[in-house]
Write a structure and sequence with these properties.
The chain is mainly beta. The chain contains one helix and ten strands, in the order αββββββββββ. It is elongated, with a radius of gyration of 20 Å.
Length: 182
């Protein structure tokens, strides 16, 4: 009897989650290194999904790719640092976030993820280094009906390093989300 009750409870949760909606989308924009003289602005793009947990609270798993620009430094032999690449995956919690519907909807972002940094000439890192990092920011959606929205957001990313410092960057992105099961 307990198994049947547990199975029914899991089925009810799954059906209610699907009816609440799931969103899938993509984003792209600008990556800005903060307090990093060895890199220039670069590009950021990625994929995301939205899962509604409770009203005004959305879980957003993501996969992101950043490529910083090369930086020319006066007086340096060779003259230029190659910009590093940072790939990340993680989960953002969106507070006040919408799941479809028309209109302008602002939200706050708090997240955590794994950030993989490819060769960084400052620390002479020759291999990939993956670290747990954190992010926070603000964004807004503009809904065009119950199943489609565009969004813009700004996020601050902090990646702690093993030497005690951290890599900090900001991303300014815009994207689109298609909501399923709405």
């Amino acid at each position: 009897m307990k198994r049947i009750f547990l199975l029914l409870a899991v089925m009810m949760i799954a059906v209610s989650s699907l009816s609440a909606g799931v969103g899938v989308g993509a984003f792209g924009g600008l990556a800005i290194p903060l307090v990093q003289d060895d890199q220039d602005n670069g590009t950021a793009f990625g994929l995301k999904a939205r899962l509604k947990a409770i009203p005004l609270f959305v879980i957003e798993p993501y996969l992101s790719f950043v490529k910083y620009g090369d930086k020319a430094i006066d007086g340096l032999i060779g003259g230029e640092f190659k910009g590093s690449k940072v790939n990340s995956y993680g989960v953002d919690a969106l507070f006040g976030a919408p799941m479809g519907g028309p209109g302008l909807k602002p939200y706050f972002i708090l997240g955590a993820g794994f950030f993989s940094t490819k060769p960084d000439e400052t620390n002479k890192v020759a291999v990939d280094e993956t670290r747990l990092g954190f992010s926070g920011g603000f964004g807004f959606d503009i809904g065009f009906g119950p199943t489609f929205s565009i969004d813009a957001r700004g996020k601050l990313n902090v990646i702690p390093q093993k030497d005690g410092g951290s890599k900090k960057s900001a991303t300014l992105t815009a994207g689109a989300t298609l909501f399923l099961g709405m």
